[in-house]
Amino acid sequence: MKKILLCLLLIVLTSCVSNEKRTDTILSPMFEVGPYTMVGEENRVGFIYSPFVPNQKQKYMWHFWGKPDELEGHFVVRATNIETNQEVVVTQAASLGPANNRADAHLPTLMALPTSGEWELKAYIGEQHFGTIIVKTVKSYNL
């Protein structure tokens, strides 16, 4: 009888834990490239860091490191709010620009995230996932 009660308790606790919202997110690291501070995956993908303010478009210069064939094709960034699972396309372009700031390719973009919270930005080149950057919005930001 004790084993049955213990199993039932474990099932209840497991189901409670699985319904909880994800709050253990680790934001993407910052790294330096020349005079610029970037956020992302060092030596793979990143953009010059500027805080995201909800629903406020800002310029972000993306940088990419990779083989020439990896850097060809349509570029799109799909963002997902980690708490609400809201998904949006935050930027897209027909192709990337040439080498810049020690990266193999770059692309200036305008991006905005629609709501506050932590967001997972998934970058795709061609139809291939190229990298993921996790950021958190701020309430306001003055230059």
> How large a portion of the residues is in β-strands, by DSSP E?
35-45%
CATH architecture: Sandwich
> Residue ranges: pLDDT <50 for 5 or more in a row?
1-22
The average pLDDT score comes to 87
SSE pattern, N- to C-terminal: HEEEEEEEEE
Salient structural properties:
disordered N terminus, 9 strands, 1 helix, mainly beta, Immunoglobulin-like, four-stranded antiparallel beta sheet, single chain, 143 residues, five-stranded antiparallel beta sheet
Topology readout:
Blueprint: H1 2-18, E1 30-33, E2 36-41, E3 45-48, E4 58-64, E5 75-81, E6 87-93, E7 105-111, E8 118-125, E9 128-136
Antiparallel strand pairs: 1-2, 2-3, 3-4, 4-7, 5-6, 5-8, 8-9
